[in-house]
Amino acid sequence: MSIDTISTSTGSVTGQPVPEGRTHWSGTADDAELAHWDAVATEVAAKLAVDVLERDRANLDPTTELDLLRESGLVNLLDPAEFGGGGGHWESAFRVVRILSRVDASIGQLLAYHYINAGNIGFTADPATQAEWHRKTVQGRWIWGDSVNPTDPDLSLTQDGDAFRLNGLKRFSTGASAGDVILVNAVVRGGDHDGTIFQFVLDHDRAGITYLGDWDALGQRLSASGSVRFEDVLVEQTDILGTVGDEPFSSLVTPGIQLAFGNLYLGIAEGALAQGTELVRARKNAWFLSHAETYRDDPFVQRVVGEFVSSIAAVEALADRTNARFDRIIERGADVTAEDRGAIAIEIAKLKVVSTELGIEVANRIFEVTGSSSAKASVGLDLFWRNVRTHSLHDPVDYKKLEVGANHLNGELQPISLYT
């Protein structure tokens, strides 16, 4: 099926500015759309699987992998069809992240961040400029990295005539070194806009940007998440998307990335189980104390696998429900209330809790049924655990448990931030 034949209910813009208060996203994904993007993602995942271990060990920026995402059309899934994009929905995008993460969670992470970063065209940009941003993104097949990590001191912008100069250092800048453009948040120091946080987009090779190449983590090694230094980088008015605040609709970007994480961890669990299942089925004989003839027939092995299959099915159901609910909130645009935003954030936090624990448990305990030979470096079963253990430290899952508990007991919501 080609992209042109997909039947969707998207209400994307038609080359004209999006009316104030509306968003180009509307409706939800139908079965044909979901099936199409699932198939595209499955094909890409199969290609990534061929040399995933070699690429992980090489620990290089994933330029070839990103070309694969461009060529498949996945990078433009969420862009309006009127500009040549896929015209798809967030549910489709989150499922794609999950499918890729079954094989290569680094690339799943990169694509997840790209979707959220480029999604700021709809969340943050002036409606009058959105069409042009979409055109440039689709025509250039841009992959959007970012440099917005809130745990570092804010980058600073200083006035320079009608433009600004950007200075500072940001760690954990996922996709910045490998992508085409970088989404940046920075606070203005002095002048008429003192204290305002602008969100803007810089091309990869803008003068004054240095990629430090210092990402050296246990897992997610190809996520291009190193530090970036900005030294007197020129930021033009035309680079600016908008301002960052706590308005309910635009701040849905944070629950959005948390929902992507939930799908990523679920994908890792599914991938670990899939490879583990192959290894168990290939094992000969059984443990000498077992009454079974093969490991696959051993009741202890079946019990562990049964736990995993059942838990994955439950988390998958929650993820699918939450992915679809996110689209229904998104289509409301400026009509989204603080209560709406809080309700979907709690649903996503629930998924974050159970998917984190599922991913870590399956990736860890799968070795119990695959045996000592599966610990060989050449097997690569450790990749799933290294990836989920690394990325699940992005923000403490215990605080997500507190969010859910405080809401259930007292109706409380956490303050809006880049983590909640």
Give a written overview of the molecule:
Residues 36-140 form the Acyl-CoA dehydrogenase/oxidase N-terminal domain. Its EC number is 1.14.14.21. Residues 1-26 are annotated as: Disordered. The protein is α+β, with helices and mostly antiparallel strands. The protein folds into 3 domains: 3-142, Acyl-CoA dehydrogenase/oxidase, N-terminal domain (Butyryl-Coa Dehydrogenase, subunit A, domain 1), CATH 1.10.540.10; 146-243, Butyryl-CoA Dehydrogenase, subunit A, domain 2, CATH 2.40.110.10; 250-410, Butyryl-CoA Dehydrogenase, subunit A, domain 3 (Up-down Bundle), CATH 1.20.140.10. The protein is built from 12 helices and 8 strands. It has helices at residues 31-49, 52-58, 63-72, 90-101, 105-123, 127-139, 253-282, 299-330, 338-365, 367-370, 382-391, 397-410; strands at residues 144-147, 155-160, 163-170, 181-188, 197-203, 209-211, 228-235, 240-243. Strands 1, 2, 3, 4, 5, 6, 7 and 8 form an 8-stranded mixed β-sheet that branches. A hairpin with an 8-residue loop joins strand 4 and strand 5. The protein is globular and about 80 Å long. Mean pLDDT is 92; it is low at 1-16.
